[in-house]
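quick one, 293 residues, struct below
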Amino acid sequence: MGLWDKFRKLFKPVQSALDVSARFRLEKHAFTGTMSRFHVAYEISSGKRFGIKFLDAEKLEAFRSRFRTLQRPEEAEIGMRIDHAAVAKTYEFGKTTTGQEYILMEYIDGPGVNTLIREPTETFLARRLELLREMAAGLEAVHKASFIHRDVCPRNFICHHDMAFVKLIDFGLSLPNLPVFCQAGNRTGTPQYMAPEIIRRRATDQRVDIFAFGITAYRMLALEHPWGTTDVTAFAALSHDREIPKDILHYRPNLDQRLARAIHKCIEVKPSHRFENLKGFLSAIREVKREDA
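---
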């Protein structure tokens, strides 16, 4: 029995089909993702609020086909293995009575970091440094569980409405941190946050997440992209090893230089020049008490 076969025995899908309308009251508004549709769901029996994700069968099958012979663990299986305060919890998964695959998860009542970058609130601006530490710790937990998130970007970090905490979401593109899953060629992810080794079809490892985290951190603190791009296509990533990113101090001249250096180290072109892990990033900014020196 292989590693992931043993893993699946621990996290089996719910065996009986979910009758959605009998168990939940769904808010009418849905959020549409790359391979899913997300609703806020109120459990009728308990009144508890959850998030429920309905997976797009056609798009999911296309992604699964890339790893058919490798037995990639499913999104929900990955989520259920990670237990950290800065990672949204996955509670169950299975199929509905209509045959659609679903994932039941923790609901965080608040905006994504992407929204806060576009429309920053005073509370967000005041809390950015601590939120950034939580985000790094959550991603480090994913790496400790031996996965690569593969889609680290502002929209996949959700803040509570009062900015008390932030949580990492969405393991739809995540892969085990094993050589067979890290071979050259897999270009999945969000282009504006792709590491050069992804776009150039080279072998990858967890440092692609560190690169994407660095861009996310830069955008949180500067409210700008380090390469100044507004392009959301794959062409956006081509500049990541062709052009030097603008120094974050250009936008934030008073930013603590230890924090500035740590962010730029995350977005180094060569993986060997980045932090080896997020613990390194957190260590580098341990003594930073506030954003501005």
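The two ends are 54 Å apart (CA to CA).
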